[in-house]
């Protein structure tokens, strides 16, 4: 079996795989910490999260979480 290297970069950010999370407004309806929790998950998955303009969190708070 061979290994496939999925590493890439997006906007100058190195990623271990070519996946990013699209902006989604209203995440607080699904989890009390909404975008902050999504950022934590994206950080664990080594991928980018694009933040929605409909977020209830500051960009800085979301960035700290991820």
Properties at a glance:
66 residues; 2 helices
Characterise this structure.
The chain has 66 residues and is an alpha+beta fold. The chain has one domain (8-65). It contains two helices and four strands, in the order E-E-E-H-E-H. It has helices at 34-44, 59-65, and strands at 8-10, 13-15, 20-21, 48-49. It has a two-stranded antiparallel sheet. Strand 3 (20-21), helix 1 and strand 4 (48-49) form a beta-alpha-beta unit. Helix 1 (34-44) packs parallel to helix 2 (59-65). The chain is elongated. The model has no long low-confidence stretch (mean pLDDT 92).
Going by helix content, strand content and strand pairing, the class is alpha+beta
- Proportion of beta-strand residues: 15-25%
Secondary-structure element series: EEEHEH
Regions with pLDDT < 50 over 5+ consecutive residues?
A: none
Shape: elongated
Helical region count? 2
Largest sheet: 2 strands, antiparallel
- Determine the mean pLDDT: 92
The figure for the number of domains is 1
Count of beta strands: 4
N-end to C-end Cα span: 33 Å
State Rg. Answer: 13 Å
Helix content: 25-40%
| Order of strands in the sheet with most strands | 1-2
């Amino acid at each position: 079996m061979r290994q496939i290297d999925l590493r890439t970069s997006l906007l100058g950010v190195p990623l271990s795989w070519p996946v990013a999370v699209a902006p989604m407004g209203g995440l607080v309806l699904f989890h009390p910490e909404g975008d902050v929790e999504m950022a934590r998950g994206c950080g664990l998955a080594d991928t980018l999260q694009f933040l929605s303009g409909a977020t209830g969190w500051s960009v800085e708070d979301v960035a700290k979480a991820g």
